[in-house]
Amino acid sequence: MPSRVRKMLYTSREAKENSVLNTPTKGPGHQTEGTAGFAVAGTFLLIVGACLVFLLLADAADGLPIRMPGSWYTDRPIWVILACGSVAGGVALLYKSDGRASANRVTSEVPFGSVILYTRGSCPLCDEAKSVLKRFSGDLPEIEETVIDGNPELIQRFGECVPVVEIDGKVRFRGSVNEYLLQRLINGRRRQQKQTGR
Asked: Is 113 within 8 Å of 47 (Cβ atoms)?
């Protein structure tokens, strides 16, 4: 297939993928609205629960200097349950918001061991792939660029499919690098590393 036709095919496919799949992504460590909502609700519940616990303990020790509602005195177990539930709920929501935020944080360790970009001389798609990979330089190890011209084994293996991106020994992209899929691959590897404790 002539390189001009191949470039047009990949460019139109990439445009479709970008228009359908690429929604604006937040940067690493960005706190989403859901995460912030959990943090606010958790803080509120924790404060309410702590106040109720303080009032219950103060009333049990010396009595309160202020008059509380009638149910305070007649339905004490309900107030104890409400206080404990508020504290527990607040802690749970804060823990959940911290877990979500930390899942978005960039760790100091890159999630992959190697990235190889196979290219050919005078290949505009290879230059585009290289610039996409550079935008993810904080999440990828140093990119090893290998020109396949003059290497019959690599020419037979990849032929006209360059650029080819191999991550940790597995071919992940041929012809172009889709930013959305690369971000999903990075996020998935980070989740996997977090679950395995690596």
From this structure: no
Number of DSSP helices (H) and strands (E) in the chain, helices first: 7, 4
Per-residue pLDDT tens over the stretch 114-140: 999 999 888 899 999 999 999 888 888
Give residue limits of the domains in the chain: 3-28+107-196, 33-104
The pTM of the full predicted model, rounded to 2 decimals, is 0.46
- Of 112, 120, 119, the closest CA to residue 167 belongs to 112
- What CATH number does the domain located at 3-28+107-196 have? 3.40.30.10
Distance CA 49, CA 39 (A): 15
145-166 confidence digits (pLDDT tens): 999 888 899 888 888 888 999 9
CB 133 within 8 A of CB 177: yes
